[in-house]
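pinned: reference chain
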Amino acid sequence: MFTMFTMFLSRFDGQSKLLLRSLMSGASGVHRAVDVFHRQQRSNPEMSLCHFIEKLCEDEVTCSQTGEQPLTVKPLVSLFPASLKQNLLSFIYLIHPVLPQTSVLHLLKCLSQDPHPNPWISTLCRQIRRSVGVHDEEPLYSPLCSQRLKELSQRLAVCGGTGGWAKCLSDQTVESGSQSASSLSELGTQRKRKLSFVTVDSGDEETEQQSKRTKMDVCGSERVSAEEQDVHKETPERLERDAAAETPAEELQPAPDRLCDSLPEHIKVSVLQIKELLESHTEWDQSSMDVFKVLNDCDPAQVEALCSALSLPDVPEPTLPKLCSSVLTLSPDLSYSTAATLIKSLLLERVLSLSEPASRCLVTAVTSLCGRYPRPMCHALIGPILKEKNIGNPQAELLNRLIEGCLDSHYRLLLLQMTFSIEWSEAVLSVIHSLLESKPDLNEEVFTQFIEQLVSQGPQFTKSVKFAKMMLTVLTKYSSHMTAAHKHSLSCCLTLNETFLKKSLQAALKRITHTT
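pinned: its structure tokens
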């Protein structure tokens, strides 16, 4: 399911992709998505989610799980995990006043096509219809839920008087225990031993203790009876477990607050201090910067928890230079794993979501960290950006700045090798051209691998001027690396070129032939 979702994610633009990633963040996903949406609105007041919703509603051809029908056509959003659908609907519910009613109703119609609807999703759809002004007489709760509420109300009425909830739950426990005893004798015996200690008494303290024991017994009896009675499959607890089973691995990560709870006390104190610092609008003095020393006291898991608790992707951009300056003053330097985690958390989402050239604050932050921590920057930021299929000119421009001003030959060679295992795009071509212009130290093996990659990916760039310019750089600046096999491969590649640079490319290749 996660692999399929990753494939679908690549079809969205940068802003939409950032929203979907936020919605995948478990219980906190809805609020994170709202924050991301508001940030995007501030940077581009003309932005609209209509294109995002249209992409979700596009038809997708998929294989039927039953095998009876080889191919089926479904809306893209219906193929997402249930937990992501719930977060998406909650997000739509919060921002629906700024969305066109037709787009919202179209999305709800797509989600209602599921032959086996999730009760929570159905309820959220009905609630949103009411909110946008569509008359819907169907109640929000299911018939089964209505029946159980009536049963619970009747049971509470019968149990009125002394005992209250304790007596009601005690009766329910005894009843469910008797139903299970015949088929599960061992568990029934253990449950009877527990129930033998449960008595209804008018004393307040004993009643409280009895209530606690009774609730524990009720939980145990529900687990037993769930194996026998199909009706329990529809309980909210079971629905939550089903949703968790469909949730991608990264959604199952603990929420930031729970991650923070696992940290030692002195790190928790530092987290609070850093939060206050990031939210303040005053200048940072040396004592303020010293709170970041806690990064050197954390193991990799604690660094990840700390970054999550601080919500670093949401730090305002004007604060980035001060934050990076504080990190750079630390002594000793951060370890590779700590620096990589910090860079990924602080910068990756920001750069991927760029739809226009990076701001001065973001450029300052990226270049300053890259100058001190080039290897973590390559693996935690530049590499993941190159692997994204839909990056554009803003990302390429920022990476070219880093190549030209922050990385030495060793790391430029590392980035060039990273491009051998990805699919090239126009933006990636711009980065490769910048790498070649910087003259990394290529040995014969790496150059041969590059020529093989260039020839294999060339047919999709027959009309690309960027690809032609990159080839011209190879033929003019790396002529000394050429062998007869390289020339033959490039000659075949040049015959496919359809740009105005074709004659210049052929002339450059011919000059290499005459000089070797």
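why pinned: Residues 256-408 form a domain with the Serine Threonine Protein Phosphatase 5, Tetratricopeptide repeat fold (CATH 1.25.40.480). The chain has three domains: 2-131, 143-245, 256-408.
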